[in-house]
Design brief:
Helix content is 53%, strand content 9%. With 268 residues, the chain is mainly alpha-helical. The chain has two domains: 7-160, Orthogonal Bundle (Ribonuclease iii, N-terminal Endonuclease Domain, Chain A); 165-247, 2-Layer Sandwich (Double Stranded RNA Binding Domain), CATH 3.30.160.20. A three-stranded antiparallel beta sheet has the order 1-2-3, with helices on one face. Helix 4 packs across helix 8, helix 9 (138-148) crosses helix 10 and helix 11 crosses helix 12. It is elongated. The N and C termini lie far apart (78 Å).
Length: 268
Amino acid sequence: MSAPSLAPVEQAIGFSFGDKSLLQRAFVHRSFLNELLDEQEGLLDNERLEFLGDTVLSYIVSERLYHLFPQQNEGDLTNLRSDLVRRETLARLAVELNLGSYLLLGHGEEESGGRTRPATLCATFEALIGAVYLDLGIEAVKKVVFGLLAEDIEQMQARTHTKDPKSRLQEYGQATFGFTPRYKVAEAIGPDHAKRFVMLVHINGRPLGVGDGRSKQEADQLAAAMALHRAGQPAPEYIPNPLLERRHGFDLLPGTPSEPLSVPMSAA
């Protein structure tokens, strides 16, 4: 089986390789080597390049997010990075570059749909990034990756720069009732390494929402989203949790705002 020309790949990423064999290796699937004749055993599969590319991607995306989102904490940045480097995203980029067409696969892998399998496409994209890094350097990798992810990052910035539920509830509470929402821990469940928190939000002593999360901050946001929803305010972040809400005295049907909120006007 002869390898297809990879010139279209070079054209698609905007760079020409000095070491063409390195680029070719990025497309050699392990199944292909398993079916080679002895005299061709000098070829290598793309798994080492995949390992390298995965690490390089994580580094450059982490660095970019660190500078783009100075207000986000470590946990938030980790979630943002996961969105950009997850299997589905990288497989989509591989499809955009038509990388599956250039894969060297064994017959069994070919017949089982390996050329379009998301896991295989993701691995191929990572291997390509590893090859770009070795042959062309980190700046070339950044140009390739961030050119492909430009729209994803733009959408991420638009979402992230929208005020979160907690900020919106604070503005609503102060404007409507003249009081700032207060949050308190209602429950802490599980061992220290896997603890979940249930947070209640109050305005001037009245409980308005409850949220459950892996951190107090996550639970705060969910509690604030519920409070906004109950007040008839836009809250797309609200995730109904009838059992939790009922346990804490909220008889709220999923997706249905309750009676108009009011709070006592005495000082907290």
